Amino acid sequence: MAATPQIIRVIDLETTGNAPPQHGVVEIGWQDVALGPDGRWALSGEGGQRLVNPGRPVPPLTMAIHHIRDEDVADAPWWHDVARPILDPWPRRVALAAHRASFEEQFCTPSLTRGADWICTYKCALRLWRDSPGFSNQFLRYYRMPEGLEHERGLPAHRAFPDAYVTAHHLRDMLNEASVEQLIEWSKLPGLLPRVRYGPDRGKEWHELDEDALETFAQDRDIDIRYTAQVELDRRRGRQTIPTPDRQPQLF
């Protein structure tokens, strides 16, 4: 009898806002990526999505993004009744994944995930595909044109299953370039930005900056900018960067 393949389950959430407990989940989508007998990763199964009653009104601001209305979720189950079976397909699951996973992690707490590790495909894209002009889920979709991605199945954007389906193609390609352990390690660190985001040096690569500019960026309020500037300073000074805890501000 063939062994059950290991999977990483890609998750996408649509919510009423950017942070619990003030905000709740209105939809969860998922798509598995499995390790094949040939040692390559590929999408597995049909995935799925479930509407969720958030227990509060859906604000117009978020309805304008995902188009899920109060009446659409009025009879849907509650989050804690839906979450565990989807987030914890034990024992096959080796990790969970999402694009900008720190957002999903706020709602998918360790008690619901059995303490699963997460892979952030945004942070891993910053490392693996540094030449990309952008790193959003949808930008990478059209910039990279992942093999096998069915266009209509990945629509509409900003709904839970289509977004998870697109992210799963990015994850598949990442897993075929780097190990699960490496992707998890990168995901636990702040993002390593390929280029400067703003100011007179916008668009430059970090090695092009002088040390005064790097020292200024190393004090920036954005943790990814601080971390990236410090990595470059430490590289020049022959030191190893001390990992910084990930406390990235969240956006819904």
Describe the fold and architecture.
With 252 residues, the chain is an alpha/beta fold. The protein has two domains: 7-188, Ribonuclease H-like superfamily/Ribonuclease H (Nucleotidyltransferase, domain 5), CATH 3.30.420.10; 192-252, no CATH class. Helices cover 37% and strands 16% of the residues. It contains eleven helices and five strands; from the N terminus they run βββαααβααβαααααα. It has helices spanning 60-66, 70-73, 79-87, 101-107, 110-113, 121-128, 137-144, 160-175, 180-188, 211-217, 223-237, and strands spanning 7-15, 25-35, 41-51, 93-98, 118-120. Strand 2 and strand 3 form a beta hairpin. Helix 6 (121-128) runs parallel beside helix 8 and helix 10 runs antiparallel to helix 11 (223-237). The longest helix has 16 residues, at 160-175. The chain starts with 6 loop residues before the first strand and ends in a 15-residue tail after the last helix. The model is unreliable at 247-252 (pLDDT under 50). Residues 7-180 form the Exonuclease domain. One of its GO terms (cellular component) is cytosol. One of its GO terms (molecular function) is nucleic acid binding.
Strand content: 15-25%
| CATH C-level class of the largest domain | Alpha Beta
The CATH topology of the largest domain turns out to be Nucleotidyltransferase, domain 5
End-to-end separation: 44 Å
The overall number of domains is: 2
Determine the number of helices (DSSP H or I, runs of at least 4 residues).
Answer: 11
Helix content: 25-40%
Mean pLDDT: 93
Strand line-up of the largest beta sheet: 3-2-1-4-5
Uncertain segments: 247-252
Rounded to an integer in angstroms, the radius of gyration calculated over CA atoms is: 19 Å
- In total, the number of strands is 5
Q: What series of H and E elements makes up the topology?
A: EEEHHHEHHEHHHHHH
Structural class: alpha/beta
Q: So, CATH architecture of the largest domain?
A: 2-Layer Sandwich
Shape: globular
> What's the name of the CATH homologous superfamily of the largest domain?
Ribonuclease H-like superfamily/Ribonuclease H
Report the sheet with the most strands, covering strand number, pairing sense and barrel closure: 5 strands, mixed
